[in-house]
Amino acid sequence: MRRFSLLPSLALLLLLAGSAKGVAGEKFTRVVIDPGHGGLDPGSSAFGLLEKELTLDLAKRLEKILSSHGLTTELTRRVDKYVELGDRAEKANSQAGTIFVSVHFNAHTDRSISGTETLYWPGSDSGRELASYVQSELGRRLVTRNRGFKPKRLKVLEKTKCTAVLIECGFISNRWESQRCGAEWFRQIIAEEIAQGILRYRDL
Ligand SMILES: [Zn+2]
User: Fold this and answer.
1) What is the largest CA-CA distance in the chain?
2) Residue 8 Cα, ligand 1 centroid: separation in angstroms?
3) How far is the centre of ligand 1, averaged over its atoms, from the C-alpha of 177 (Å)?
4) ∠30-33-35 over CA atoms, to 5°?
5) How many angstroms separate the alpha carbon of residue 19 from the centre of ligand 1?
6) Band of the pLDDT at 21, cuts 50, 70, 90?
7) Which residue ranges make up each domain of the chain?
8) CA of 107 to the centre of ligand 1 (A)
9) In terms of CB atoms within 10 Å, which end of the chain has fewer, N or C?
10) How far apart are CA 9 and CA 175, in angstroms?
11) What's the whole-number mean pLDDT along residues 117-144?
12) pLDDT tens-digit profile of 84-109?
């Protein structure tokens, strides 16, 4: 039994390490959904699509699903306007029991690149866990390349104090994927899959 004696202190250490950015398996009641870009900042653009328009539509779909499951939701923007990254994060930081979910669409000069990925702040255990739940749902119903969940030093994740992820929902620079991203049915399924990941993380 002696070899198990380290376990309680290890668990405590993990708990302390996770506390700065939320705790894995946490109970939350509020989701701040952040539609990337907006206003003067269109984000990526390709094949007639603007990232800022796709993110806003997707965020509203996600909000509808999450609120129907009893979660309080708030969007960082509801219209086509620019919001500073700090102000987006502040919406999440202003109340306890909140997670932050930013949605984006990707682009690359190499137009063959496609797929979805979920990003979290390096060292955030709960961010990593939420990212793993979301990413494992993405592409479950769609044939979409799974690019995995990865740590990334993104400003909006740095400024967010709670559990936070940023989801890249597809490459609009890829002709095939841009057609899907531009379609309502695709964004609806992506929203349902993200919601499923969030709900599974909540109900751990
Ligand atoms: Zn973006």
Assistant:
1) 64
2) 41
3) 16
4) 170
5) 28
6) low
7) 25-202
8) 8
9) N
10) 51
11) 94
12) 999 999 999 999 999 999 999 999 99
Average predicted confidence (pLDDT) for the chain: 90
Asked whether the beta carbons of 150 and 117 are under 8 A apart, the reply is yes
Q: What is the pLDDT of residue 23?
A: 57
The strand order across the sheet containing 98-106 reads 72-75, 30-35, 98-106, 163-171, 116-120, 146-151
- Rounded CA-CA distance 45/107 in Å is 8
Residue with tokens 């700065």: 20
Around ion ligand 1, residues with a beta carbon closer than 5 Å are: 36, 43, 104
User: In whole angstroms, how far apart are CA 156 and each of 64, 133, 138, 189, 202?
Assistant: 23, 20, 22, 25, 22
| pLDDT mean over 43-67 | 98
The rounded Å distance from CA 42 to ligand 1 centre is: 9
